[in-house]
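User: Fold this; tokens only.

Assistant: Input:
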Amino acid sequence: MAGNIKVLFIGAHNDDCEYGAGGAAVLLKDRGCETVFLNVACTRHADFDAETLAKMNRQETDAAEALGASKIITGDRSRETYFYTQKNVDIIEEQLHQIKADIVFMHWQRDNHIEHVSTAKCTLDALCLADVHGYAPRETYAFEAGPNQTSAYFNPDFYIDIDGAMERVKKSLLIFNQHHANGEGLWREKEVAARFRGHLAHRTWAEAFKIMKYPYGYDDCELLLPKLLKGSFCWAGGGMYPYGRRYYLMPAE
């Protein structure tokens, strides 16, 4: 079954999928899934010559391949900021129809990075419109972008134990050697974030996620991801700290 399953990760920038869900991508690939990274906001904030751009493109492709994923980058390489627009929604929806993934991972909407927020809004609207036009993934999840960006607003629904994937995640992140994607810095932050989430998940390393869309309907409504990642999937919370306590202690998200 896993050999026929396609998983799409949608990130704003060239390193977002590798950083936020690289471990999950490795595990899914190892279980026979096809994994695709889609970057929609890879704008450049300075002018680069053709040789430099080619080098950056190679790093982006190599970083994804180190995790077993293919990479698609949409849009141009302009200096413009990525905003929530109809055009950007349409670009993502077009990719959704072309790829037809069974599972989609995306940014969380509450984030300190303006382009992460815009990407999350565009992605969610594209997913809603894609359903109207004939395509819907079975399930959709949001990943955590990082301590300075998402973590302050991110209460995970579940964790994925990525202990067996961390070496490949490290290799992937260290490939980046760019002004806005420094591999050494990315790895240091990932190491801290994955260790923290691993502590909460009672593992060494973990990634954290939220559920954005359940399977729809009455006949086959079980989540596919926990089955694919059996032994590595763990619901958030616990006996002494049940997930539902947060509803009494904080405003609704």
